[in-house]
Amino acid sequence: MKAGTVLGEYFGVRFKLDQALPIGKPTKLHKFDLVSENGRYVGECKNYRWTRGRNMPSAKMAVVNEAVFLLKHLPRRITRFVVMRKDLKWDGKETLAQYYERTYRHLLGGVMILEMNFRTGALQTVAAEDGKARFGK
């Protein structure tokens, strides 16, 4: 399933793909993966997995950090989110999105973390805008 379709149903909006918005001062355009037609929802999509060698994909986590950083430059009135592929760790205890929230929650600053099962389209909030974890803790 396509993330834009699932997230559109979740938020009740339609999304445009790869839309440029001004961020920072002085402003510079940045293309975000998903921008709602009404401009109230902006997100980045990350299709990442744990590594085959049973390691955390550190370079990919740095890219998620960059996405969060860029989203934080948008006004707080906008719902800002990163949606990640649901990928369970080899020991079955934690998904990659849950790992990200646990490790980097101090960087989120109002950016939501969602995870999506790409086969079923099931969507779960891992970190809400208020910074609170939303998965079985």
Explain what you see.
26% of the residues lie in helices and 30% in strands. The chain has three helices and six strands, in the order αβββαβαββ. The model has no long low-confidence stretch (mean pLDDT 91). The protein has helices spanning 3-11, 58-71, 96-108, and strands at residues 15-23, 28-36, 41-46, 79-85, 112-116, 123-127. The protein is of the alpha/beta class and 137 residues long. Helix 2 (58-71) links the parallel strand 3 (41-46) and strand 4 (79-85). The chain has a single domain (3-104), classed as Trna Endonuclease, Chain: A, domain 1, CATH 3.40.1350. Helix 2 (58-71) packs across helix 3. It has a six-stranded mixed β-sheet with strand order 1-2-3-4-5-6.
CATH architecture: 3-Layer(aba) Sandwich
Number of strands: 6
Q: What's the number of helices? A: 3
Structural class of the secondary elements? alpha/beta
State the helical fraction.
25-40%
Query: Order of helices and strands, N to C?
Result: HEEEHEHEE
Could you tell me the radius of gyration in angstroms?
A: 14 Å
Primary descriptors:
alpha/beta, six-stranded mixed β-sheet, 3 helices, globular, single chain, 137 residues, Trna Endonuclease, Chain: A, domain 1
